[in-house]
Amino acid sequence: MASAPLPISPLAEAAPAQTRARSKARGAWATFVSSRYGLAGLILLLLVVIPAVFAPVFAPADPFALGAKPFLRPGSSGHPLGTDHLGRDVLSQILFGARISLEVGLVAAGIAAVVGIIVGSVSGYFGGWLDVLLSRVTDMFLIIPAFFLIIIVVATLGSGILYVMVVIGLTSWPANARLMRAQVLTLRERTFIHGLTALGESRFRILTRHIIPNGIQPVITNCTLLIAAAVLTEASLSFLGLGDPNKASWGRMIYDGRTSILTAWWPSIFPGVAMVITVLAFYLIGDGLSYVLTPKTRRAGE
Amino acid sequence: MSDALLQLDNLSVAYRTSRGAVQAVQNVTLGVPKGQTVGLVGESGSGKSTVAAAILRLLPNNAGITSGAIRFNGVDLASLSESELSRTWRWRELAMVFQRSLSALSPVHRVGDQLHDVLAMHEPKLTKPERTERIERLLQTVGLPERVLKSYSFELSGGMMQRTMIALGLLCSPPFLIFDEATTALDVITQSQILAEVKRLQKEFDLTAMVISHDVGVINATATTIAVLYAGQLMEVAPRERFFSAPAHPYSKALVASVPRISGTTGRLAGIPGSLPALQDPPPGCRFAPRCPHAMPRCTGAVPPLYQIAPGHTVRCVLYDAFPVAAS
Amino acid sequence: MGSYVGRQLLTIIPTILLSIVLNFALLHAAPGDPARIYAGMDNATESQIAATRKELGLDDPLPVQFGRYVGQLVRGNFGESFAYRRPVLGLIMNRMPATLLLTMTSAVLALVIGTFLGAISARRPNSVGDIGLSLLSYTFFAVPAFWLGLLMILIFSSKLGWLPTSGMRNVRADYTGWRDWLDVTRHMILPTATLTLVQIPIFHRITRASVAEQQREDYVTTFRATGMPEGKIFRRYALRNALLPTVTVFGLNLGYVVTGAALVEIVFAWPGVGRLALDAVYRRDYPLLLGIYLLLAIAVSLAILLTDIVYAMLDPRIRLR
């Protein structure tokens, strides 16, 4: 007799990553949206990205223009958020500052991702003395206070925005390397990898075509946190006067405004608010991403 | 039925999930007479663990008893308050032996301390030396060395851990014990050792028990009466010998046939084609109908009643409608 | 246990060694001639500079200089500051108590408050209280410590006038004894509050996740079945299991607090190591800067080692495997 179509047992684990990419992506998106935090983060992020991209359109003035009176209060005509000690419009600076923050965040996280993935996967896949050596180096970077290292490097080698981005990236990769290595160690023992090796696939191709794509998810989640951290680090550097003086970054704004903060609070406070919104957005997105990656069995009880 | 120590009356349990309500247990009426052991057998997802959880009210937050009663010595456990249930009934009257797992006990506390804690909670009048004596005697009974008390759970082997869980269950000398997949995580040899141990303990402590397992062999080794659960519906209840010599329900027949035999003529391993229905949207009538080789149109109408085909033997199948309906 | 400590030390030592090498490399990669700086930037003559160079041993080949550097380190000589002309170690140790006061107070306060809030959150997940706390948690995690410090000064010092704006003491009034303590405490409130607020989210989140995870563990069901009240299960068993990750986090967090503390010190003009470091950066006082960095690396490594030991003491699975 005809039996009913095979239903999915409620106890089944989530299927391994072999289903078709497109439907998987759609499913992932639906899950992400169902996570309230992830959705909230995405909305917040758009709040930051759109003004950043369209800054020239939204900004009331050129951020570097010195024309207006200094220390105009927020709400003054033409300057919704006031002006700083040089008469520059605060709102415009914030909008263009968003570009800088996003740039720094993305580039630094990107570098950290690439280096971390390479180090972690090589370390985990090939093992042996290479693994031991790379793990030691990874641990070393994890333990030492990265910020001080960044300060020293920026102080000695230069404070251009490019230096800042690269240095932040080069000090944040260890977490990614650790995550990648853990993933590779697990994936390495999976049956389908053994099968591929038996079929004669080169180790390099196995690593790049099969292991890395399958193990990359926690690294991506971590990278959203790295973007947030990079924004904060760049701001801290600028606040210390070590950032790029030619760029209107949020940290720089706070630095410029801090000596007169008791009389004119707005040049220092508003950039901070912008920073909180941006960093919060990335944290929430990261939360949403990790929700997507949590196996359904763990989420079942919610 | 009236001398049953534990009586499940028309018990139904449902889970609330994001996909709708799941009827995990539907109208199960089952009695465990004093001194007997009822084996509840069914495949994964049949609802047997849900039944066990419902008895001791260990259901997760998204599940609830939707109808029926759980009578222990006449008292409906489902109607008691949480504190009353905990104080008077849990562990003193009914206890459960869980499947041994890595964290069935707290991994960072010593095993002995946890045993002491539970005993002290239920028998506060005992002094520490008295408790220690009781526990050590219990350990001896289940075949555990004294050093288990000072150990942590991860230091014990699977068999030792399972014996510890048995000792924990017997701590307050309850008259009724539920074994929930108690040997599932063990290798075959340890499993048979534990089962022999359980049988001995049942005699020694005059236990009334319910043994829950998906393994027909385990049920065979320990139960006097066998109840078959499929997709939350009770399909058959039979005394042990009759169950294995003359199973009535098509599902029971398939279960018995699927047990591989070492002796006798070689044949093919028989499985049961198909799988459990999705319980958010259960099939109407008999839930086994979609997989049943004898299914008729009648099967998907109303749920068939339990027919009494012999003393102590009931079956829920329209194939036996010539027999009288079993009295509840 | 001893072997465990030994193994952990083996991890720390290479790290510290690598830090030393890194230090040395940066010291010599830095632009600017140390001899010139040391001799006095503006009005040193060439021969004076050459003499200074010889005095500092900068003429010798690099490996010799490295050997000398390590030898000095081992003897506790971290070099001499260009700006202050005094031993680096002494300068740092002078300022260390102030920094420790801020760092440790805020770390411990954050641990206690954050863990408490996290436990509350986890016991009533997804309730109004939990979501409110979680959102606050996320927000404060996103706040830059130095900006929060400025905000605090603005509100509590300037607008409300409750607390002093900066510094560690009222230098004009020369308090002694308990009055001095009170004065320091008054000055300490805002910077400590700032640092604590940005650390609380860390402990809130880890405790919340950890407790929630423990509630799903089998032993909770086991104890429920025995009739143990929920409160007792939580207090006696779940909490102890749940707090283990917190110990690890506390150790790792110390590395970050140090950074945050430096920034907060600068905002509040708190006389600690942070300000010393910043001045050193501005003045390109490399020995001082690198001395601070190295000392920090050692301190953080030791702190993490200590945390690992405490963790091993609490978790028998680590000790006995």
Question: Describe it for me?
Answer:
- The complex is a heterotrimer of chains A (302), B (328) and C (321).
- Chain A is mostly helical and 302 residues long.
- Chain A is built from 13 helices and no strands.
- In chain A, α2 (36-53) crosses α4 (90-126) and α5 (128-143) crosses α7 (161-188).
- In chain B, α3 (111-122) crosses α4 (128-142).
- Chain C has 321 residues and is an all-alpha fold.
- Chain C has helices spanning 2-29, 34-39, 46-56, 62-74, 88-123, 128-142, 145-159, 177-215, 218-225, 230-268, 273-282, 286-314, 316-320.
- In chain C, α5 runs parallel beside α12, α10 crosses α11 (273-282) and α10 runs antiparallel to α12.
- The termini of chain C are close together.
Q: How would you summarize this macromolecular structure in one to three sentences?
A:
Chain A is built from 13 helices and no strands.
Search tags:
heterotrimer; A: 302 residues; mainly alpha; disordered N terminus; B: 328 residues; alpha/beta; 8-stranded mixed beta sheet; 4-stranded antiparallel beta sheet; globular
Give the topology.
The complex is a heterotrimer of chains A (302), B (328) and C (321).
Chain A: H1 21-34, H2 36-53, H3 55-58, H4 90-126, H5 128-143, H6 146-157, H7 161-188, H8 191-199, H9 203-215, H10 217-239, H11 250-257, H12 266-293, H13 296-299
Chain B: E1 4-17, E2 20-33, E3 37-41, H1 48-55, E4 63-72, E5 75-76, H2 82-89, E6 94-97, H3 111-122, H4 128-142, H5 158-170, E7 176-180, H6 188-205, E8 208-213, H7 216-222, E9 225-230, E10 233-239, H8 240-245, H9 250-258, E11 307-310, E12 313-315
Parallel strand pairs in B: 3-8, 3-9, 6-7, 7-8
Antiparallel strand pairs in B: 1-2, 1-4, 4-5, 9-10, 10-12, 11-12
Chain C: H1 2-29, H2 34-39, H3 46-56, H4 62-74, H5 88-123, H6 128-142, H7 145-159, H8 177-215, H9 218-225, H10 230-268, H11 273-282, H12 286-314, H13 316-320
